[in-house]
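Show me a record, fold above all:
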Amino acid sequence: MTAAEVSQAAPSFLALFWAGVIAFSILAYVVLDGLDLGVGILFGATRDPDLRGEMMGLIAPFWDGAETWLVVVGASLFAAFPSVYAIFLPAFYLPVLLLLIGLIFRGVAFEFRGRGGPSWLWSGGFWLGSALAAFVQGAAVGAMILGVQVKNGQFAGGPFDWLRPLPVLTGIGLMFGYALLGAGWMILKSPTRLRDWAYERAPFLAIAMTIFLLFASLLTVMQAHGVMSRLIERPWAAGFFLAGLLALWGALLGIARRHDASPLAFAILFFIAAFGFLATAFWPYMIPYSVTVASAAAPEKSLSFLFWGAGVVVLPVVLIYSIVIHALFRGKLRVAGH
């Protein structure tokens, strides 16, 4: 069988299973840690110590558990699709390094803020780390939309291929998107004036994200020929795009009507729609537009071993933990006097 025939072969059940696990884990991470990062970004928009303290309290039980899904993505990719891991990491060395720096600095600042030392360092590190992590994640998505240069199974591009106009737009857009998730989380969970503070800023965040989305879509039409060729073949994918815009409209309506659950719910629906749109545009490629799910999958015995080890034991534990922790801390945050 030739290399071309291998690349066009249908993926096995286990390959599809692990591709689905990675896709679900990415979406879970984006939603769960996205709202944490969004709160961190908005943390830099106020100097009020009471508001900042409550922001920290809103995400304290959740932020480290949400990042577990990022570990699941990396581990699954390394074990189930090693060739994708070997291409992706060299292509995005700098974004991955900046992501880790942002997440580490953010975590350290979260733990050390209020325990002595320079307050400006920990507060600045918290919101800068959150903003940096959000930006490089969005930039990586934009770079994937444009395509990754692969030759002989290896990354053949340059270290700054990810830093082009479209990735910069998607990076800034994701910062606004995460901030909207964070504002929705504050509205949903806060019983104090933080709720009103978030309501005041949420419309701007939704409108700004819409503007960046439209500009990014225009650049995608002009530059991302691989994506466009697939969308022409799959015109129904426009339904995801429309659903995303309707979700943003629903978020704005929820904000205007002061319905506390609506902004976060519609923001999550937007991210689900955006994820569905990208998945439709990329399929069957894991590295656009050269490495498919079938060609990148590890041997079946490896996938089977991974299934019975991580798939049956580890993944359910992570999922159950995420569900239980959100169930335990459901409802408004309890604040003294409220």
